[in-house]
Amino acid sequence: MSSTELPTAPATAVTPRAGAVRVAEGERLRSVGLPGITLTVRSRPPAREGLPPALYVHGLGGSSQNWSALMPLLEGLVDSEALDLPGFGDSPPPDDGNYSVTGHARAVIRYLDAADRGPVHLFGNSLGGAVTTRVAAVRPDLVRTLTLVSPALPELAVQRTAWPTALLALPGVAGLFTKLTKDWSAEQRVRGVLALCYGDPGIVTPQGFRDAVEEMERRLTLPYFWDAMARSARGIVNAYTLGGQHGLWRQAERVLAPTLLIYGGRDQLVGYRMAQRAARAFRDSRLLTLPDAGHVAMMEYPNAVATAFRELLADTGQLTSSTNTGAGS
Question: Which positions fall inside the AB hydrolase-1 domain (predicted)?
Fold first, then answer.
């Protein structure tokens, strides 16, 4: 994948399609039309002019909402935007139906090129971690720093609790699962997701749970919901099998940007044991391990993630006078 493959056009603001999407206080949503894709972008007004831009990319089944707890903690450090990847959140499916890791990476690159926001502080969780690793490897000019929360990088021995995600990639499984779970309530589904993704689901507030149920109900009405999930899961599995220069571990070695790696000790989807391998693969890396965190540390322990990011800026000489207030200060 190279910049020559990615024709760009000026971002076109269009009316957000779904008013039911939750927007936290201080956030705003807009939709951006680009060749072949329409992306919903969540943002917060920066604390002041001149702050460096940041872009956040969610994981499988997630959305830009996954970053709503972290973004306000970084208001004094960066100018934050979070994407809904094609087919997730409030972004419609891509015109070409490409949900591969490379396809999602192209979507991120198209947005950054069209918006002329690069280089950015790039964040990725899970699938978004694989996507942003690929972006940082092939377009280093777009990335100031890279922060990866439980990135979905290839594992030889996948945890048993991650098998259902891998099985979802098999043809026909998504349709079968839909039939088998047609009587499950949104509450049941959300409890299952929280149990899988959080180290301690008990930290979710009652209001947070109600918001998650409301969002689940909305997503289940989308005709492409399961297709986007299955094809993106297939994209992760396929990315795990790629070798040579396109392999994710090889691309991790090519990343030039200072990298912050964050792993949770109770992560049931990405093995905690992969933390040290990742720290060796990324040439300029720092590692934060959170023993009680699960798969979504930026939602479970946003203050710890914000503090670690601020330390990354300080360590790399990017904590200038214009970013001297914010997380950890």
Answer: 55-300
